[in-house]
Every structure is written in C-alpha cells, then in structure tokens.
Amino acid sequence: QVQLVESGGGLVQAGASLRLSCAASGRTFSETPMNWFRQAPGQEREFVATISWSGGVTYYADSVKGRFTISRDNAKNTVYLQMNSLKREDTAVYYCAADCRGGGKCDYWGQGTQVTVSS
C-alpha cells in the first residue's frame, strides 16, 4: 500500500523556519516528480512547490519563491520542504503529493501536517 507521511509541522513565530519531510513507502518515487501543496482555513488547496525526479528542476509558487526550498533524497524515498522567513499567511495544512497532473489532481496524497505561524 502506497503511503506518503508528512512530518515537521508546528507552531512558530513569524520569521522562523521549519523543515517539513514527506516519507514515501509502498513503492519507490525516485523516478517521479514530487510536490507540496497547502490548504489554509476556508481556502482551496494551492500548489507550493514541485521537484523533478532527479532533483535538478524545481518550481515554486510566487508566494513562497525565495523563502521555501524543495529537495529530495531518493535513497530515503523522502522529499523535504525547507521553509524560511515564515509569514502568518503561510499558516496552512501542508500536503505532499505524487503522480500529479494539471489542476492539482494527484494520485497520492499524504495526510497533511499543520503549520501555524503567529505574529
């Protein structure tokens, strides 16, 4: 059974950093792009970042560009999201996802990890 399990969320003050992890099991994702999405209360889920299978290509939402960094360790079947200079508007549940197509349609989703940024 394929599972994506996120960890690393928490409550931090504005300006702080967090690193999220997403551990995959059940199959290897080393040859597929991996993605992070987030959903704030009362809002739709939105794309945050994606990384190619090799890690050589990354792409970010404008709202996080320059502050967040996505990376992966294929030997550990794990993808990371380093979040720096956090803002209140980054407060959301963060999800990792795999086998995604356009429009945020993905075959595999994690359960999400809560990130709360206080001012």
Description:
With 119 residues, the chain is an all-beta fold. It has strands at 3-7, 10-13, 18-25, 34-39, 46-51, 58-60, 68-73, 78-83, 92-101, 105-109, 113-118. The strands form 2 sheets. Strands 2, 4, 5, 6, 9, 10 and 11 form a 7-stranded mixed sheet that branches. Strands 1-3-8-7 form a 4-stranded antiparallel sheet, with no helix packed on it.
Beta strand count: 11
Average pLDDT number: 95
Percent range for helical residues?
under 10%
Rg for CA atoms: 13 Å
Which sequence of SSEs, written as H and E, runs from N to C?
EEEEEEEEEEE
**Helical stretch count?**
0
Structural class category: mainly beta
Major β-sheet, in short?
7 strands, mixed
Residues in β-strands, percent: over 45%
Taking the alpha carbons of the first and last residues, their distance comes to 40 Å
Low-confidence residue ranges: none
Shape: globular
